[in-house]
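Next comes this protein:
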Amino acid sequence: SFIIYGLDKLLAILKKYRIPEGILLSLSIIGGPLGSLLSMLIFHHKTKKLLFYIINIISLIAWIYLTYKLC
């Protein structure tokens, strides 16, 4: 998800066709919340959208919890 967020930021800068927000959020939920959060901070992408912070933080907590319970 880190690479996809970075690619979307590049596409935004170039004013090209963008990656839909639903796909970005889905990547965060499926397994890339840490990469998504890091890319938001490094690329300054989607930082004004509270929904992205909420989804990424909840997903990260869920992944940490699941990893703890399964290991």
